[in-house]
Design a protein that fits this description.
The protein is an alpha/beta fold. It is built from eight helices and 19 strands. The protein has helices at residues 10-20, 38-41, 59-80, 98-113, 123-129, 151-163, 275-288, 337-349; strands at 2-6, 25-30, 45-46, 91-95, 119-122, 139-143, 147-148, 168-172, 178-182, 185-191, 194-197, 200-203, 222-233, 242-245, 248-252, 257-261, 296-308, 314-317, 323-327. Helix 1 runs parallel beside helix 6 (151-163), helix 1 packs across helix 8 (337-349) and helix 3 packs across helix 6. The longest helix has 22 residues, at 59-80. The chain is elongated and about 65 Å long.
C-alpha cells in the first residue's frame, strides 16, 4: 500500500512512522521543510488535564494521548539517539483572585470525580510546590501527571527515524496544488511535476489544509488562529513546573530557557509579532512568576493553530473515499500527535504495527 501525506509537521511525520510500522510505503510532502510551521513554534505542553476545561468528551482521548507520550518519547530517543525533551514537570494552573480560585476548585472537583489526579492548593502550598510563584497567587490547581516535550527535538528525532526507514520518503519543497481524483475517489495529489498516485492520501497540512485544491466542501473548513510566543532566559534556572495563568503560560525547559505564550488571534495568515501581543504575554507571565522580570529577553515568534468550528480535530476517514484527515487540532496538536498518527494509520491499513525494526535504507 502506498500512502501520500500532505504536510511534514509532527503529526504528518508521526503518521508516516505509524504507517511504515504497519508495512505501508509512505511519501511525506511538504511545501517547505518538515516542521517549519506550527510544529516548530509550539510550546510542547502535554496538558492532558490542564486543557480539559470540564469537557467530558475530551477526558479519555486527552489522558490516553498524554500517557502515550511517555513510552513514545523513550522510543524516539532510543531509535534516534536524540533527547526529545520529555519532562514530567507537572502543571500548576494558578489563580490570582477569588473568582479564579473558585473556578479552579470546581474544575479540580470535576476531574477527581473522573478518577484523575488533581489537587487544589492554597497559595502558600502552591509556592512550596513551585517557589517561583508570586505573592499574588492565592491558589492553584495542581496536575502532577501533565508533562512537556520539546517539539523541535521531537521533529528532529522523527526525521532521523524516518530517514533510516526504506519505506518512507520525504519530499521537501513539494507544493501540493490539488487532490487527484478518479471519479469521486481521491487517488493522490497534483504536484508541480505531475500527479503522484497513492492508495490513500492523508491531509495533515495544519492551518493550510483547506487551501489544498480539490478538498470538498463536505470536509469541515480549517482556519488559522495566530499565536505569538516569547522566549526568555533565566540566568539561574528557577522555574520548574509549567505554570498557567488566566491569559497564558510559562514553560521552563530546564536549562534556563522559558517559553511564554500565547495569544489567540483570528487574523488570517498574518504572521506578525505585535507590541500588544508581547505585552499581554509578559504581563501574564510576570503576574504569575515575578522573578522572570530579570530574565533575558531572547526571541519572539508567531505561527498558526489549525482551528475547526466544531471544536474537535479531524482525524480518520473523510467523507471522500481515499482521503484521510489528520488536522484541526487547534491548541493540542503536540498532545494528540501520537494518538492521531495511530488512529489514522489504523483507519488506512486496518492493522496494528508489525513487530521488529524497520528495514535499513
Amino acid at each position: 500500500m502506498r500512502v501520500a501525506i500532505i504536510g511534514g509537521g509532527i503529526i504528518g511525520c508521526a503518521t508516516a512512522q505509524s504507517l511504515a510500522l504497519r508495512g505501508a510505503d509512505v511519501v511525506v510532502l511538504d511545501r517547505a521543510v518538515p516542521g517549519a510551521e506550527a510544529s516548530s513554534a509550539a510550546a510542547g505542553i502535554l496538558g492532558g488535564q490542564v486543557e480539559l476545561h470540564g469537557r467530558e468528551q475530551h477526558v479519555k482521548p486527552f489522558i490516553e494521548a498524554r500517557d502515550a507520550w511517555r513510552s513514545w518519547a523513550a522510543q524516539l530517543a532510543g531509535d534516534s539517539g536524540l533527547d526529545v525533551g520529555y519532562r514530567g514537570s507537572g502543571v500548576l494552573h494558578v489563580a490570582t483572585n477569588d473568582v479564579e480560585r473558585a473556578e479552579l476548585a470546581c474544575e479540580v472537583a470535576w476531574q477527581t470525580s473522573h478518577g484523575l489526579v488533581a489537587t487544589m492548593l492554597d497559595g502558600d502550598v502552591a509556592r512550596r510546590v513551585e517557589p517561583a510563584l508570586g505573592p499574588t497567587v492565592v491558589g492553584a490547581a495542581h496536575y502532577p501527571d501533565d508533562a512537556q516535550v520539546n517539539p523541535v527535538s521531537v521533529l528532529r528525532a522523527l526525521l532521523v527515524v524516518l530517514a533510516r526507514d526504506a519505506r518512507v520518503r520525504i519530499r521537501s519543497g513539494s507544493r501540493v496544488h490539488a487532490l487527484a481524483f478518479d471519479g469521486d475517489r481521491c487517488v493522490g495529489v497534483v504536484l508541480d511535476d505531475g500527479e503522484l498516485r497513492s492508495d490513500a492520501t492523508v491531509l495533515a497540512a495544519g492551518s493550510w489544509s483547506s487551501h489544498v485544491g480539490g478538498v470538498p466542501g463536505k470536509v469541515p473548513s480549517v482556519r488559522p488562529v495566530r499565536g505569538q510566543m516569547v522566549e526568555l532566559e533565566e540566568r539561574t534556572p528557577n522555574l520548574r513546573a509549567v505554570v498557567f495563568g488566566s491569559a497564558g503560560y510559562a514553560v521552563p525547559r530546564g536549562e534556563g530557557r522559558v517559553l511564554c505564550g500565547s495569544t489567540m488571534e483570528h487574523v488570517g495568515f498574518c504572521r506578525e509579532v505585535t507590541a500588544g501581543g508581547v505585552q499581554s504575554i509578559l504581563a501574564n507571565a510576570l503576574a504569575c512568576v515575578p522573578s522572570l522580570a530579570s530574565a533575558r529577553f531572547v526571541a519572539t515568534w508567531s505561527n498558526f493553530r489549525p482551528y475547526v468550528d466544531a471544536g474537535l480535530p479531524l482525524v480518520g476517514a473523510s467523507p471522500v473515499p481515499g482521503l484521510f484527515l489528520a488536522t484541526g487540532h487547534y491548541r493540542n496538536g503536540i498532545l494528540l500527535a501520537k494518538a492521531t498518527a495511530d488512529a489514522v494509520a489504523l483507519a488506512i491499513t486496518g492493522s496494528r504495527p508489525r513487530s521488529g525494526n524497520p528495514p535499513p535504507p
